[in-house]
Amino acid sequence: MTMHLAPITDKLNWLQQLASHYHQDFISEQQRQLRRQYQAFHPTAIIAFKCMDGRIHLPHATRIPTGVIQPFRNLGGIFDLGWPYLGDLLAEQVQAAWQQGRPVLVLISYHFSKGNKQRGCAGFDCDRAAAEQQARLLQQQFRQLYPNQHWLYPLVCGFETDLDALVLHGSEQQLDLASMSALQQSRAPELVRQLLPDMPAQLVQDLLPLVQGNLAHIAAMRQHRRQPDSEHREWMLCIGRGFDFLHVPNTALIIGPFSPDLAQPIRQAAAIIAENMRAGRIADDGFLLLSSAPYQQLGPDQARAALKSAFLYQFAAKVVADFDPALAKKMHGRQATLHWPERALYWQPQL
């Protein structure tokens, strides 16, 4: 559904419906059963580092159940494991997986377009080489932090947004799933093992469903002949975590609460939204600033999430007001918390 030129009130209603539909689908018995069955056969914990761009929807592109891949999203897909909060959060997830006897596969993604360079990652001025280099630097940090690749394997993956196609990177070669012939596709397990000879057998076994699912998805995309959309039309500035439901292209600029310097990406996002208004790509009657923080349990954990969300909102609102007072006057604010086990977004009183 295209909402970029709709009135801001219609956009807000649409957003609430989108979050509600995602929650209802996530908790449906069908999805619960799919997750249980999938993880029984493929126990590896999968963590994905990716850009905020709504086109990078890995469960959809690999045809695996929602909730299997644990996402970290940030503007430009830029991360540094030296960031204190990010490092602590990652360590908690890795430790929880290891305590369950599960190895961890980390997908470090960057994105680009084969059809038009300008459909690439705006965080890197659509420079594929720069985006890939950033992903490799993050991979090096993972190897430094977790040198035993038997338990944690960081894999650099390109994501070609015209076809939602994965590009797997080995140390010297790559495997572009969109370029594989029918014969190569029939040999996919062998080719993956050749590309990643140091990947443990269990991790290879649990990577292969993503490869096979992506090959099927690419074939369907070619039949569907989706028209790629290169135009920035974002009308939301999101800060925090819990935006899995927002896999809608060119809608939201999502800033994870990871970097010690949150003001810079907030200013960058505000500038993009202001330019979208000036260029007529979105309605100029308002934009949304949405903060969110996840929690696992009712009680103090939920209350702390509400405090986090309030802080992030207030911080971002002040940055926008200082950076572009005219844009700030068009700001509509919402705070939310997300019950992570059910992906239920709860809206706080309107600001």
TrEMBL record:
Name of the protein: Carboxysome shell carbonic anhydrase
Start and end residues of each Carboxysome Shell Carbonic Anhydrase catalytic domain: 50-180
Organism per entry: Alkalimonas collagenimarina
Pfam families per the UniProt record, alphabetical: CsoSCA_cat
